Amino acid sequence: MIIERLSQEHRNIERLLAILESELEVFDRGDRPDYEVIRAILSYFEVYPEVYHHPQEDLVFAKLRMRDPAAAAKVGDLALEHQKGAERLRRVAHAVDNVLADREILRQDVDAIIRDFVEHERRHMMMEDRNFFPAALKALEPQDWTEIASALTSRKDPLFSDAAEERFDKVRAHIQRLEQEAEDQRK
Questions:
Q1: DSSP secondary structure string, 49-69?
Q2: What is the largest distance, in Å, between two alpha-carbon atoms of the chain?
Q3: Residue 160 DSSP one-character state
Q4: What is residue 158's DSSP assignment?
Q5: In this predicted structure, what is the pLDDT of residue 49?
Q6: Are the CB atoms for 134 and 6 separated by under 8 Å?
Q7: Range with the lowest mean pLDDT among 68-82, 98-112, 118-132, 140-154?
Q8: Other C-beta atoms within 10 Å of 42: how many?
Q9: How many domains does the chain have?
Q10: Do the beta carbons of residue 55 and residue 81 sit within 8 Å?
Q11: For residue 112, what is the domain's CATH number?
């Protein structure tokens, strides 16, 4: 089902946000984070959510607005939220580029830019999971879901699918290492 896939993608995005935070902690200590991992995560955010995830949500939201305008109004302006997220992502990418180019930029500014992105992404996904998705599941009819499904591309997530792209190998390895470390700590 479409909402289940979108929810799973939110969980995948949360894993990436957690890695971004852990790399930011390394940066905040004055050590060198893994910029290859950071850039791969940013690349993922530039591609998958913008090109595949958000357009799917937009299709669902358009149907919700048609079926239950009051519920859609409570969700707010989803397209604007997605646009603001893309702008925050561009600020993060610019800040990382400045650090890598040894341009003058304060550590606390880099920290603030990245934390702002992470916090807004989390709040946005929480709103969608708590308000938007349940409202859509309640209001949309079977034919709506069929129409949405037929309009969607069958593009697999380039990081979390079997058909994962090579450029994300390092991030996948990093995720697996962190998950293994967490598992080892629980033992």
A1: IIIIIHHHHHHHHHHHHHH-H
A2: 55
A3: T
A4: T
A5: 84
A6: no
A7: 140-154
A8: 20
A9: 1
A10: no
A11: 1.20.120.520
Can you list the pairs that 20-27 forms with residues at least 24 positions away whose Cβ atoms lie under 8 Å? Answer: 20/114, 20/117, 20/118, 21/118, 22/178, 24/111, 24/114, 24/115, 27/99, 27/107, 27/110, 27/111
- In the chain, where does DSSP find H-type helix? 2-28, 35-48, 54-67, 69-75, 78-100, 107-127, 133-139, 142-151, 169-186
Look-up of token digits 């997605």: 82
Q: Judge whether 164 and 172 are in contact, CB under 8 Å.
A: yes
Angstrom distances, CA of residue 114 to CA of 14, 29, 124, 167: 14, 15, 15, 22
7, 8, 66, 145 from 13: Cα distances, Å: 10, 9, 28, 24
Distance CA 140, CA 106 (A): 48
pLDDT band at 177 (very low <50, low <70, confident <90, very high): confident
Q: What is the mean pLDDT of residues 43-63?
A: 89
**Structural domain harbouring 138:** 2-186
Residue with tokens 């390895």, as numbered in its chain: 173
- The mean pLDDT of the chain is 87
Q: What is the CA radius of gyration of the chain?
A: 18
CA distance 73 to 186: 43
Q: How many residues does the chain have?
A: 187
How many whole angstroms separate alpha carbon 5 and alpha carbon 122? Answer: 17
